[in-house]
Design brief:
The chain has 549 residues and is α/β, with parallel strands linked by helices. It contains 17 helices and 20 strands. The strands form six sheets. A five-stranded mixed beta sheet has the order 12-10-14-18-17. A four-stranded mixed beta sheet has the order 1-3-7-6, with no helix packed on it. Strand 4 and strand 5 form a beta hairpin.
Length: 549
């Protein structure tokens, strides 16, 4: 019988290899070249999710092509089955395998109900032993009543996010909702799973979101969670924004940045809550929908639980109201010590309603941190400079300019430098500082100055990218343009005739970055609103419509 004639025969699981005399190919030198590799920690994925089983089967003495049907009730069509075939050492499966000159080829693996079929070819002149290893992984099953939300995850090319990290964050989202952590917390049976590989965002999406056009491009780039380098626009120019999402979305649609590992799940589920129609809630500082982020923010009430269970359109089949959102800081208590206020992360930026209530005495405390202890408080530099700008004391002008001009670098520092440029506009609005306005105008309109200011960060980004796979460092011009755009919006917030004229001039300034020309179109509208209605009314309107995106 020719080897191919054996293909339609079935080998039963209980096949007895018997007492046939064993031949092997160990006495023949193989025709191969030899290569060797070592496995380190780099690139190794965490433990498999689901239930796993391993088994080695002795299929006896064989040669030629065989369809081998293993009957095993733990295997189903959805099982992931990994198979390795090889020549067996005499003495049974525990004795192991070895490599001789015979060729063992595995062609196909097909899981089925209560078993798996494999197609094997053994190229040898006599029957020799065949051992087959099976690794079976069954995906985790959802408990009854548990809603599963499939989430597509995207990242910008300048951001590192592995599939293992995405899975960890999605799992944390589910844990936050499913657990009944305290008395007022309602256990909500929702879990989140990744839909396919982590995808790269389209090349036209910038790594830093600084304008309404940037955010619109990001949110219309398919559904899912989109991870970018920085977000500086959510309903208007902002600082330290960790996440942004429309309230009442047709699908899962979240913009976010990388953050502290144990709190990224909270950020994603908070923004997903906005997709489900939920506003901020300030009556419980442990609420998932509280405006700031914290490791213990894991409480949902009954109404929120219902919204999470209903989900956006793609899950629930209905469209949530997508109008304005009362997503400001109403109901929040102002910490007596401004240092406590800045030592927290606000998901959608430092709230002007609170920060502007502090005074010059508080500004001096923050300046001590900014000038004398910047390394110690690097995590909160963005909140520090934002609050200084909102306070509006002229004593902060030169220290904030000095900070922007400093050689300090790092992602937290660079974000804070952009915030300083933006909030120098608020400071000028309140104090009338000419020095602040002049500095903003120079940074916005002078590309060479912006490049000089961005150079330390460009070097730091290049060094960081070398240690990462598949991450592209932003260029010097990209970073310089970010600073210039931040200065442009700072001018818009200053609220003076001079600053409004400067913004108008930037629209067609050929010596400015193209992104500045484009941002100036939106900044001009803000400048007109601030001048006509005042800063307080502008921020009230911004808070009211923050999620009408």
């Amino acid at each position: 019988m020719a080897p191919n004639d054996r293909l339609d025969q079935d080998a039963a699981l209980l096949l007895d290899p018997g007492t046939q005399e064993r031949a092997d190919s160990s006495d023949t030198k193989g025709p191969w070249a030899v290569a060797e590799a070592s496995v380190g920690t780099e690139g190794v994925q965490p433990a498999l999710q689901g239930t796993g089983f391993t088994y080695r089967h002795d299929w006896g003495m064989r040669r030629g092509e065989w369809l081998l049907r293993l009957n095993w009730d733990l295997i189903q069509p959805g099982s992931q089955v990994f198979v390795a075939v090889g020549e067996g050492v005499p003495g049974g499966p525990p004795a192991g395998k070895f490599i001789g000159a015979a060729r063992y080829t595995l062609h196909n693996v097909a899981p089925r109900f209560n078993g798996v079929d494999i197609w094997v070819n053994i190229e040898w002149s006599a029957d020799i032993s065949l051992y087959v290893d099976y690794l079976v992984v069954n995906p985790p099953s959802a408990p009854p009543g548990l809603r599963t939300v499939s989430v597509t995850v995207h990242r910008h090319s300048s951001v590192a996010l592995s599939e293992a990290e995405a899975d960890r964050i999605l799992a944390d989202m589910g844990t936050i909702l499913q657990n009944d952590d305290t008395g007022p917390d309602v256990a909500t049976p929702v879990r989140f799973v990744r839909n396919g590989a982590v995808r790269l965002l389209p090349a036209n999406i910038p790594g830093t979101i600084q304008t309404s056009s940037d955010l619109n491009a990001l949110l219309t780039a398919g559904s899912g969670v989109k991870i970018v380098q920085a977000i500086r626009w959510c309903g208007g120019p902002g600082d330290g924004i960790i996440g942004c999402a429309p309230v009442g979305s047709a699908s899962v649609n979240v913009a976010a940045v990388r953050f502290t590992a144990n709190q990224e799940g909270l950020i994603w589920v908070h923004e997903y809550g906005h997709n489900c129609g939920l506003p901020h809630r300030t009556d419980d500082p442990r609420a998932v929908m509280y405006p700031s982020v914290g490791a213990d923010h894991n409480v949902v009430n009954a109404a929120e639980s219902s919204a999470f269970l209903s989900g956006p359109l793609s899950i629930s089949g209905k469209v949530m109201a997508a109008g304005g959102c009362s997503c400001g800081a109403g109901g929040l208590a102002l910490p007596a010590d401004v240092r406590d206020f800045v030592s927290q992360h606000w998901i959608e930026g430092v709230p002007w309603e609170l920060a502007s209530q502090y005074g010059e005495k508080d500004a001096r405390l923050l300046l001590d941190w900014l000038v004398n202890e910047p390394e110690k408080h690097e995590e909160f530099l963005t909140q520090i400079v934002a609050t200084l700008g909102y306070i509006g004391s002229e004593i902060a002008v030169q220290p904030m300019i000095d900070f922007v001009e400093s050689a300090r670098a790092g992602r937290a520092v660079f974000n804070a430098k952009n915030t300083a440029l933006l909030r120098l506009g608020d400071l000028a609005n309140r104090s009338g500082s000419r020095a602040a306005l002049d500095f903003l105008a120079r940074v916005a309109g002078d590309m060479d100055l912006a490049r000089t200011l961005a150079a330390p960060q460009a070097s730091a980004e290049l060094q960081a990218a070398k240690a990462l796979q598949d991450v592209v460092a932003p260029s010097l011009d990209t970073l310089a343009a970010e600073l210039a755009v931040s200065a442009t919006f700072g001018l818009a917030l200053a609220g003076t005739a001079q600053s409004q004229q400067a913004v108008e001039a930037l629209k067609g300034n050929a010596d400015a970055f193209a992104t500045v020309n484009q941002a100036a179109q939106e900044a001009a509208e803000i400048a007109a609103t601030v001048r006509a209605k005042g800063r307080q009314e502008y921020y009230r309107m911004k808070a009211e419509h923050r999620h009408h995106l």
